[in-house]
Amino acid sequence: MNKLYFFILLSIVISCKKEEKAIPVKKTEPLPAIIQTDERKIQLDTSLIGSFKSENLQKFYIASNNETVWGNLKKRTFIINELKKSETLGLNPDDYNIKKIKTFESKISKLDDADLALYDLLLTYNFQKYLTHLYKGKLNPKKLYNDWDLNEKPFDVNTILIKAFNDNDLALTIEQSQPKTDTYKRLLKALALLNDFPNDNIKTIDVIDKVVLHDTNSAMITVKKRLLYWKDLTGRDSLTSIYDSKTFEAIKKFQIRHGLAADGVIGRGTINALNFSKNRRKNQIIANLERWRWYADTLAENYFIINIPDYSLNVVENKDTTVVRKIVVGTISRKTPILTSTLKTVVLNPTWTVPPTILKEDIVPAMKRNRNYLKNKNITIYSKDNSVVEPNDWNENSPGSYRYVQSPGSNNSLGLMKILFPNNHSVYLHDTNHRSLFGRNNRSLSSGCIRVENPLELAQHILDSNNWSKEKIDSVIVTKKTTNVKIAKKYTIYQWYWTAWSINNSLQFRDDIYNLDADLYAKLRN
């Protein structure tokens, strides 16, 4: 009997395995054949192709019946020139083995079959790598940062490359592989503008106290040299140590380009920006180009785009900017995450549940000092069974076992409105009960969420498609009752980070508030 059971069980296992094998495997569409010409062709050893450890390379040469394809001088010249000038796009020619490729090309007529085969593979492999870097960057942000939550950018390099090869239009591959966004194009323009500046050897500016109009300070001579170099100060200047009116206007122009308060006062922020050399600015632009290749290559029809270092939120609808708002973003210790999502809900009169980080770092220490701290802020403590806990009954040794909820109202930490969108970081857009913060220049002050200036006007704009008027929103606010409104119009939200671009041939820079630029550039050139 035991043997009978064994054979029955064995037959079931075998039949299961057979069923598993029978599951159809989704096959990818075969690539079109590469159109060959009459140039010298060499049959490639598949083991040589395999030594590059590149699936894309193997698929490409399957389409050519494993024969060399770069016998045409014009096509080879195009690829070599593109790899040589990759630096103009912020990439590094050394990443594409350009020296070895140029050496092969200089000896092309003398190459034996083995070297010709290797040369062909080097051209394809490095051009594929170049196109991939243009499309989605050299580095993977998810491996660099734990708070960058961006969608994957799949890239079928062979489909683009083979079509362009067969159409004899390789230039099209460069165009199709790069982001289509205006900011990316303005970054390329910024890099070109910067490359036109001469090398600078201006010494570092060292100012202890603020310098204001009509002051006399020996550092002003170097300040003026910097302003002349960056073309914020034009014409001849005697380079005196007096802070004169002409230099005052130049400083304000410089401050505007760098997102600083345009008050003409030469303080720490202005000095720090003045002390950036040409090379440091170039490295900053290259780091930003890499970031834009991580982002979506085209933007939605209607979207919110947030530039964290610029403290700005723009609403763009049908390619028209309809709303511009100042924002407050996370501090360097509680960074605002980078993400792409879709707006879902406007919440009027929101409650606020204290998040774990704020509970640990802010609430618990304050409660230990003053048991009425939460009560004074209209925050109620709830136990696990949703019973209200009086402050004197709160157990300071297990603060995580409670829920802390602030009631709606003008004193609520989220203000009168918040906007929700799906994300893995529990962040959202919201109002604030500290509206004076929008008057500050440095607004890296929140715990990660984004506070928005004039939020009810923004809510009215979003809910216009819901037929919600200003009067209707105001009538809900007065009730102090939490109300959720699903957004009828589809808005994508891009919560991104960039610190450089150009506007009308004017270089624009922002303070790298999370100290990401220099480190990213170093990794790109490693």
From TrEMBL:
Pathway in which this enzyme or protein is active: Cell wall biogenesis; peptidoglycan biosynthesis
Signal peptide: none
Keywords, ordered alphabetically: Cell shape, Cell wall biogenesis/degradation, Peptidoglycan synthesis, Transferase
L,D-TPase catalytic domain location: 302-479
Key word Ubl conjugation present: no
Matching InterPro entries: LD-transpeptidase_YkuD-like, LD_TPept_cat_dom, LD_TPept_scaffold_dom, Peptidoglycan-bd-like, PGBD-like_sf, PGBDSf, Transpep_catalytic_dom
GO biological process annotation, one example: regulation of cell shape
Active-site residues (renumbered): H430 (proton donor/acceptor), C449 (nucleophile)
Gene Ontology terms, MF aspect: carboxypeptidase activity; transferase activity
Family per similarity comment: Belongs to the YkuD family.
PANTHER family assigned: BLR7131 PROTEIN, L,D-TRANSPEPTIDASE HI_1667-RELATED
The protein's name in its UniProt record: L,D-transpeptidase family protein
Originating species: Flavobacterium frigoritolerans
